[in-house]
Amino acid sequence: MAGSSGEAWDERVWRVVGSPLVAGAPDGPLAGETVAVKDLYDVAGFAIGAGNPAWLASSSPAAVSAPVVSALLAAGAAVRGISRTDEFAYSLAGTNAHYGTPPNPAAPGRVPGGSSSGSAAAVALGEASIGLGTDTGGSIRVPAAYQGLFGIRTTHDVVRRDGLLPLAPSFDAVGWLTRSPALLARVGEVLLPGSTTAADRRLVTVPSLITLADPDVAASIAGWQPDLGLRLPEAWPLDDLPVWREAFVTLQAWEAWQAHGGWLEGRLDTLGADVRGRFERARLVTASEASSARRVVAAARELIRDLVADRIVVLPAAPTVAPELGSRLTERLQAAREATLALTCLAGIGGLPAVTVPLTTASGLPCGLCLVAAPGRDKDLLDLVNQM
């Protein structure tokens, strides 16, 4: 497809593109940078599509841009275009039944990861320098790991979510992806409040979390040797991790149906099969089940924050490399999703910042290491990664 300038662009990656689509301020700390805005954020003059043609057709153009988009524009960055997302951000794979699967240039023939799939692919392809996305259950961390990018899921509620179509407000967080740690940190200087203070930067590993990854990913993380002095591994009481994961899934489903069930009732057939299946299950979650899950999540949040304390925890950003496209894809993606959520739910439940650092397996495939810290240490993590 061709954009307004006649330039060809990939409809799997972009919903709409301009040269630029929206110009930024003439100068500022992000002057010269371009942004792929995930199709969940308000961009003035454009409707939100949420990865679903029926939703797009029923939506009206936004009168004003979301605050996070406005902040990037005010800092000099230009909006290159609006990028694809898995439907309603309710997936980690990066596939879309309506628009196709964005390419993964770092691992051709494999899924790109989602739900910030278009934003990640645009950055990996060099078509934008910043990919604005969201992370509820790993939607920044997974595509960053699969495509060899740096990415941050910010502390829950530290960056305003006005003008953002929700999935599960208890867990939704703003995030972004870049090809370099320096730019990741520069965006943080614009979007994150205040300044960081020198805090404890002891790195800890939890073997029971590392072993949740496939052997090739676990070996890459074990071989990571930053000039920071990796502390000896420590044991965490994680026998209840499967219970936490299930509570996360249940509460996420409940909130997703509360957010979109009114519109989806009678329109479930507009969804691709995988996302439709999740919303069909979400529709059946009772208020009592949601309440029980909320109590489990609240208790788990307190324990996770106590365990992280003032340290920085090293764990896999995703337990596998990007699954290959091909036969039995739906079945394989569901297995990958279940394994992934066991790791990604920790930052989601804790409301914690998480920065993905790209690594490579012995066979040359991209994977990701994740650094997780206490709430509000976003800039500290970004500074740390930028010094590596």
Summarize the structure.
The protein is an alpha/beta fold and 388 residues long. It has helices spanning 53-58, 67-74, 117-124, 141-147, 181-191, 207-210, 215-222, 241-264, 273-283, 287-308, 329-350, 378-387, and strands at 14-22, 34-38, 78-83, 130-135, 150-153, 173-178, 203-205, 312-316, 354-360, 366-372.
Quote the distance from N terminus to C terminus.
Answer: 40 Å
Total of DSSP H or I helical runs spanning 4+ residues: 12
CATH architecture group name: Alpha-Beta Complex
Largest sheet strand order: 1-3-2-4-6-5-9-10-8-7
- Write down the overall geometry: globular
| Alpha-beta content class | alpha/beta
CATH superfamily: Amidase signature (AS) domain
Average pLDDT, all residues: 95
Sketch the major β-sheet.
Answer: 10 strands, mixed
Order of helices and strands: EEHHEHEHEEHEHHHHHEHEEH
Number of beta-strand segments: 10
How would you sum up this structure, described in words?
- With 388 residues, the chain is of the alpha/beta class.
- It has one domain: Alpha-Beta Complex (Amidase signature (AS) enzymes), CATH 3.90.1300.10.
- Helices cover 36% and strands 15% of the residues.
- The chain has twelve helices and ten strands.
- Helix 8 (241-264) packs across helix 9 (273-283) and helix 10 packs across helix 11.
- The protein is globular.
- The chain starts with 13 loop residues before the first strand and ends with a helix.
